[in-house]
Amino acid sequence: MKEEKQILYCKKCRQTYDGSYTDLKFCGECGGPLYKTEMEIYDWQQLTDVKKEELKTNWDSELDLNNNFEKTNVKCPKCGCEISSNIKFCPECGTKLDNKAGEIREEKNTMAIVGFVLSILAGFLNLFGIISILSVVFSSIGLSNANRHNVGGKGLSIAGLIIGAICFFYYVYSIYELLDLF
User: Are strands 16-17 and 34-40 parallel, antiparallel or unpaired?
Assistant: First the structure.
């Protein structure tokens, strides 16, 4: 005997989800919380549109928050939970998904760019090693942003880290050699 699954309902946009979404917490259309109803899928499918609207009106004042979600093979860029790729909000954390979930967003990773530019500048003008240190710091922040927020700039960050570190060690070596002369 197959277990019947219940309809989930979003009060905010009045969207309903069938039993294949039994573990959802937030609506994939508007990001509002989902509520578990007493209505089973089979019974819901037998209702007329007018009756469904009447039930939705009743649900608007009666339902309690449900804390479960459905997971698929795509990940949310903020919390990393598995979600459906065609939704607009993460059902786990409620984050708005501007593009398809799990894809690298086309945002500029400013810290990665600044770190890389500083590392190149450190190769030509390394004022007391400060520029190379700054390039390593900014590149590290850029790499962290690339990993955490699923934005581009990972390659620039890694290049900035490597070049900045080389420039810093070259600066330290130069000072050491300079002090050996005296």
Answer: unpaired
Structure tokens at 70: 């459905």
Each residue's pLDDT tens digit, 6-36: 778 787 888 887 766 656 777 888 888 777 7
Provide the residue ranges of all domains of the chain, joining segments of one domain with +: 6-83, 110-181
137 burial (CB, 10 Å; 0-12 / 13-18 / 19+) is middle
| Contact in structure between 14 and 27 (CB atoms under 8 Å) | no
pTM, whole model, 2 decimals?
Answer: 0.45
Q: Tokens 């009447």 label which residue?
A: 54
